[in-house]
Amino acid sequence: MKRTAVLVDRTYLEHENPPGHPERADRIGVLLQALDGAPNMPRVEPHPATLDQIHAVHTKEHVARIAATEGRERTIFDADTQTSPRTYETALLAAGGFLAVLDAILDDRADNGIALVRPPGHHAESNRAMGFCFFNNVAVGARYLQDQHGMERVLIVDWDVHHGNGTQEIFYGDPSVFYVSLHEHPNYPGTGAAEETGGGRGLGTTLNVPLPAGSGDAEYVEAFEQIIEPACRRFAPDFVLISAGFDAHVRDPLASMEMTEAGFVTMSRKLMGIAEACCGGRCAAVLEGGYDLTALRDSVLAVVRELRGDRLPEGVES
Length: 318
Ligand SMILES: [Zn+2]
Fold this sequence. Notes:
A hairpin with a 2-residue loop joins β2 (75-78) and β3 (81-83). Helices cover 37% and strands 15% of the residues. It has 318 residues and is of the alpha/beta class. The protein is globular, with a radius of gyration of 18 Å. It has one domain (4-308): 3-Layer(aba) Sandwich (Arginase, Chain A). α1 (26-35) crosses α9 (293-308), α4 (87-106) packs across α5 (137-149) and α8 runs parallel beside α9 (293-308). The model has no long low-confidence stretch (mean pLDDT 96).
């Protein structure tokens, strides 16, 4: 069995969206209930990312705009994206929480891990908050591995149902970070066409796999096997990062895909296989979307079990 670091913490309840907003504190509430204090898992404490770590992917102006919201009742960035008094602090802890999971793997306290944080990150661009996101947690993690741990090539696979426009924008011209996204198309935010493959020196290290509404486990697994796995193995990453949103689940209210827990498990297994083949199994996931609380909880639990390797034999009901 593998040592899977799972980070989930009450501090992530403190970013507050208006009543009725899908990206709500209860998302972390159900995960705390399901996972906090679970036995046999390395405990990881969140700490805030430093400004230097955030500035590695965001402009100083962007960071200053978010910082200026601290203590203010509400600041509106767009219709979906608003701050509460403790959003800035919580967003620093979200990025820092992912770094804490990476540290646990790098220090050999864990084999792999998952950071269950909010606010999410993959829509946040270098100079723009949008789509519920303020700081791009997975991007901060990728740069941390490169700048502070000497990793050369980082793979980010983003299976959130929405395209991670922010992560794509940050690494579009960078051949050292391979950004791969599967997403419903058309859907928010509208980017992520198959023709978007990177720019300049980064040409070829962005891979978009838009899928039509109604796609489920079979379509995702087919895309993995035919397109994504071979490309990721060719890239030969030093670390595998997952932008793990669970809003492609059939129960999710924000999209029209038909994924189940089994599909997320299969994608996890395939990415762990790539990590085993290329980089000693080093693999870490960070939560993005996922707005049906039951689907979110059950999918996260299934992925954690897969990361740990405590699968039941085929045919055995859990
Ligand atoms: Zn999403």
